[in-house]
Write a structure and sequence with these properties.
- It is a single chain.
- With about 210 residues, the chain is of the alpha+beta class.
- About 15% of the residues lie in helices and about 35% in strands.
- An 8-stranded antiparallel barrel has the order 5-6-7-11-12-13-14-15.
- A hairpin with an 8-residue loop joins strand 14 and strand 15.
Length: about 210
């Protein structure tokens, strides 16, 4: 212990105080070289504001903009609908005859005698008895046999006044499907929308070429 001398402060004499020696005080470890001293932020509220909204008005605007952006995104997706995969094409029955396949492995074989066979081929099928169709209670693939023909569509496209369709009639007589012909003579395609055209779901069959 160390004794401090007596002093007179403001006319009052103080007795000497006993102060622990320096050896008795706890020793703090020295800061490593290069380490930065901790300095508390003068404005901690800035960190809270940076990660969230500012005030009731800011939060209200954020909550309002989220559904508006979502509605706009849905509207843009509905407005952009993929069209025909190629230009309208006119082929003879002999050129149409052969095997066609879709990207899921389905096959459609058009025979030169006007008959066809389908094996899980995609399409926009219509059941004439129940009025069900693909995308509305009916599957978009079908296996079966029947007859086929082509005729000019009564609904020409903007890019071509002549759109030819392939019409399939299954053996049952009440199941049918139609495809438009497009592409080029070297890479022809049969295609159709499945269900509601606004949904943008398409079935595309490409001609299987012999090598």
């Amino acid at each position: 212990m160390m004794m401090l001398p007596s002093r007179t402060v403001g006319g009052v004499r103080t007795e000497g105080w006993r102060v622990p020696s320096a050896e008795k005080w706890p020793q703090w470890p020295e800061r490593p070289a290069g380490a930065r001293a901790f300095v508390p932020s003068e404005r901690p509220w800035k960190r809270r504001v940076a990660g969230g909204c500012v005030g009731a008005l800011g939060c209200g605007l954020a909550l309002l903009l989220v559904p508006v952006a979502l509605i706009a995104w849905i509207a843009l997706n509905r407005l952009w609908v993929p069209g025909a995969p190629g230009d309208a094409l006119v082929l003879t029955n002999a050129e149409l005859a052969g095997a066609w396949k879709d990207d899921q492995g389905g096959r459609l074989v058009l025979a030169g005698d006007g008959t066809f066979s389908a094996s899980s081929a995609c399409g926009d099928y219509l059941d004439g008895e129940s009025d069900a169709s693909s995308g509305f209670g009916l599957a978009s693939t079908k296996t079966g046999r029947g007859t086929w023909d082509q005729w000019e569509s009564g609904l020409p496209r903007e890019d071509s006044p002549h759109v030819w369709e392939i019409h399939l009639e299954f053996g049952s007589g009440h199941m049918s499907a139609e495809y438009e012909v497009s592409g080029t003579t070297k890479a022809p395609m049969l295609w159709t929308y499945i269900g509601d055209p606004d949904d943008g779901k398409r079935c595309i069959l490409t001609k299987v070429t012999s090598r």
